[in-house]
Amino acid sequence: MHVAIIGNGIAGVTAARWLRKLSDDVRITMISAESDYFFSRTALMYVYMGHQRWEDLMPYEPFFWKKNRIDLLRRYVERVDTNGKVLHFGDGGTLAYDKLVLATGSSPNKFGWPGQDLRRVSGMVSAQDLDNLEEITPEIKAAVVVGGGLIGIELAEMLHSRHIPVSLLVRESSYWSNALPPEESRMVSRHIVSHGINLRHDTELAEIQDDGGGAAGAITTKTGERIECQYVGLTAGVHPNIDFLRDVAELELGKGILVDDYLQTSVPDVYAIGDCAEVRNPRPGRKAIEAVWYTGRIMGETVAYTLLGRPVAYDPGIWFNSAKFIDIEYQVYGEVPAHGRDGLTTLYWEHPDGEKSVRINYEESDGRVVGFNLMGIRYRHEVCEKWIARGTHVEEVLQQLGMANFDPEFYQEYEAEVVELYNRQTGKQLQLRQKRGLKAALQFLNFKRRAPRATATPDAQ
User: Fold this and answer.
1) How many Å apart are CA 326 and CA 157, to the nearest integer?
2) pTM here?
3) Among 38, 121, 129, 151, which lies 20 to 30 A Cα-Cα from 339?
4) Partners of 234 in the beta sheet?
């Protein structure tokens, strides 16, 4: 059996690796026009900032692919013939397959702004975006970044590291307020401003103006304000990269490629995973498209079993994500809606410095913990996830809260203050019983080396 995988991001690469772990016989080909080898997309910013080299972004050495008999093709797929099971490349070549995995990722959103296709206007999701930015940096005296999500702040930080004045346009009244609760959203806004970035709330892009030579020279906002700039970063979200598939009549598309519980598309022997996949029946509380690293990884592993005749339904588990807002680390586990919901109670503690916080969400009816939001303080994913999965009562969690903390050894601990806040709000007299420590966490998790889910070939280890 020959499995072709279009895309070499985390979803496609995980699918290839697990196919090889589970089978010696399958032929695997990964196709990408973006790069020769898989790289860590979330670390692109650190190459521009001088913290890493390009080769440092590759999780696997170049010899890994040949050793594991995973063929790599640096080609652009122009057309997919699902009836003939043939891929047509932009250079005229073709490749036949038995089963196809679409792992084509995301593209930056463009909303029809005048000037959005000028030179010195780009997103920041691909290796080509990084190369382009590096090339034009000498021309940039000032920059504008449009959009208040995770990529927006990363791009603003990148430019700021080169001492380029940056204006960050956010249409909401505080940063990323559609994802962060109000207190955390305002915290990040304050932090961005404190680092010298010109954060503009309640501001929307109207037009990107030509400098007379076919490149960005300024922008105007919807209020008519003009901001001079020689670069515009478009980071107002992403959408599934599926335009080249719209002529495939048999393939059902929504915002992404529609897939069932087993990541199967409407076409036999064709699957979709990662950012480009739209789950027809998402789990309660989950979105149909979740363009995050860990869901792509889970999809890649899941689809490998199904491709080999061992069907496994896609289960994203308990939601989590992590990021860094300049100097503030962020972690979210479970249910932390930006605007709350009926029946959900929240305990929110914030440090007086305004750059650290702990939020614990729990059900008002029975006290079950359902979510954690951490800013500037690190909590163990496995511990928080186990509390949520068990439906542990908030008071039990609070008394053991130090067990989740994995800040470095000499960092201050704040769990006692979180418990004290809960006592003031409820009239209880709880005591913190467990401080930070790896031993307690491992005992709680019943840690032991996990047996492999399937026999892996030696070369795939």
Assistant:
1) 7
2) 0.92
3) 151
4) 146
